[in-house]
Amino acid sequence: MAVAGAIFGAAFGGWINDKYGRKKSILLADILFFIGAIVMAAAVAPWMIILGRIFVGLGVGMASMTSPLYISESSPARIRGALVSTNGLLITGGQFLAYLINLAFTKTPGTWRWMLGVAGVPAVVQFFLMLSLPESPRWLYSQDKVKEARAILEKIYPANEVEQEMQALQSSIEADKASEVSIATVSFQNFGTVTYHFGLNAVGSIVSMAFVDRFGRRRLMIVSMFGIIVCLIALSVLFYQASTHAPAVSSFESQHFGRNSTCGSFLKAYEPSNWNCMSCLKASSDCGFCANGDSKDCTSYLTRRNGDRALDCQLGNISVEIQRHWRRDRAVSNWVSNLIVSETFLTLTEALGSSGTFLLFAGFSTIGLVAIYFLVPETKGLQFEEVEKMLEKGFKPSLCGNSKEDDSK
User: Fold this and answer.
1) Matching InterPro entries, A to Z (predicted)?
2) Which CA distances in Å does 93 have to 12, 86, 328, 339?
3) Comparing 254 with 237, which gets the higher pLDDT?
C-alpha cells in the first residue's frame, strides 16, 4: 500500500512542484509522513495501518521526486551529482538506522507502535529545518520572480558566475522540452533492481559520490547495471544450488505438532520421503518449512495456521534479505514498476522458483542496460539548458560515453 500510495504521490507531487514550488512540496511530504506514522502507531484495526501506509506512501512518492530535484536545482553543476548521491546515501543510512531502532523496540512495551510511530520524528525535524531553506531558484525564475532567483544564486555561485547562470535559466525556461525524454529513459533500471544489502548499497553510494562528477553519470550507470546483472545471476545460481542441496523433510518432525499443522501437500504426497525444503515452497503458497540445525532436516508447516513459526524458517545457513530498491526518479513509472515487483515476486517464485525469478530480473536488467546505452546521454558538468539542446539535436551513443558528435570534435 505504501508503494501504491507512492505512485499517486509522485504524480500529485509533480503538479505541486510546478504549481507551488519544490519547498512547499517537501513540507507537504513531511506532513504526510507525520500523519501516516501517527495513524499507524494509534491503530486499533488493520485498516488503520493500511490507511497510515497510504499516507506514508504519498509522502514517499512526493519526496522521492522532489528532494533530488530540489538538490539538483539548488546546487552548482560541478558538485550536483555528488550532492544527489549524498541524498541516496542518507536514504540507505536511514534504512539501516531503522533496523537498529526496530531492534531496540522489540523488547519495549508497545513494540510495533513505537516502531511505526517514531517515523514521525524525522519528518518533524525536516519540516522545521526546511523552513529555513530557500526555494529553488529555477522554479522562482519560472514564476517570473527574477529578483528572488538572483538573490539565491548569489549565495550559491561566485559573483562572476551569477549573470551566466541567470542567462542559462532564461534559456531553460523558454525551451524546457527535455524533461519528458529524460524521465522515460531511466525507468528500465528500476524494474530489474529488486535486491540490495545495506553495506553494498552504502559503498555504491560513496563510490558514486566520489566519481560521478569525474567520470560521468552514463558511464557509472552502465557499470552499475553490469554489477546488478552479475549479482542477480549469482543469486539465481545460489538459489539453484540451495534447491538442489536442500535438506530433506522429516516426516516425524513434520507431524510432531499434529497433522493440522503440517502442509497438506506433504501429507498427501505419494513419496514424501523424497521431499526437501524447496519442495514445500513449490508445493503451495500455504506451505513453508523450518530448518533444523541439529538433525539437518527440515519441518513442513502449514503457513496460514502457523505463521509465527514459519517466520523462523531458513534456507540452510543462508540468509538473504529481499527488499524493494527505491530509486530516486521523477517518473511515476518507477513506482508502478516497484508495485509490480512487490505484488508479483511471490507468485513468480512459486511459478518459476527463486532461481528462475532472479534470472528473470537479470533479463530485465539486461534490457535496462541496453536502454541506458542507446537512450541515456552523458550530462557530466552540463547545465540543464545544455542537456536540453543536446537532446533536441539527438543523441547517438558511443562506447566511451560521449556522443559521436563530441568525439568528432
Assistant:
1) MFS_dom, MFS_sugar_transport-like, MFS_trans_sf, Myo-inositol_Transporter, Sugar_transporter_CS
2) 27, 10, 15, 23
3) 237
Which three cell numbers mark 311?
A: 517466520
For residue 350, which amino acid is it?
E
- The pLDDT score that the predictor gives to residue 176 is 58
CA 157 – CA 73 distance, rounded (Å): 12
Domain for residue 216, yes or no?
Answer: no
Number of domains in the chain: 2
CB 291 within 8 A of CB 247: yes
pLDDT band at 302 (very low <50, low <70, confident <90, very high): low
List of residues 6+ apart from 90 with CB closer than 8 A: none
CA distance 169 to 30: 29
Residues with Cβ within 8 Å of 201's Cβ and at least 6 positions away in sequence, in order, are 92
Domain of 72, CATH number, reads 1.20.1250.20
Give the Cβ contact number of residue 4 at 10 Å: 19
Q: Is 10 exposed, middle or buried (0-12, 13-18, 19+ CB in 10 A)?
A: buried
Rounded to the nearest 10°, the torsion over CA 335, 341, 346, 350 is 160
Domain span including residue 102: 1-133
Last residue of a domain, one of 133, 163, 183: 133
Residue 262 near residue 256, CB atoms below 8 Å? no
- CA-based nearest residue to 325, from 222, 198, 157: 198
Residue 340's CB is within 10 A of a number of other CB atoms, namely: 12
Going by the DSSP 8-state scheme, the letter that residue 274 receives in this structure is G
Arithmetic mean of pLDDT, 130-153: 89
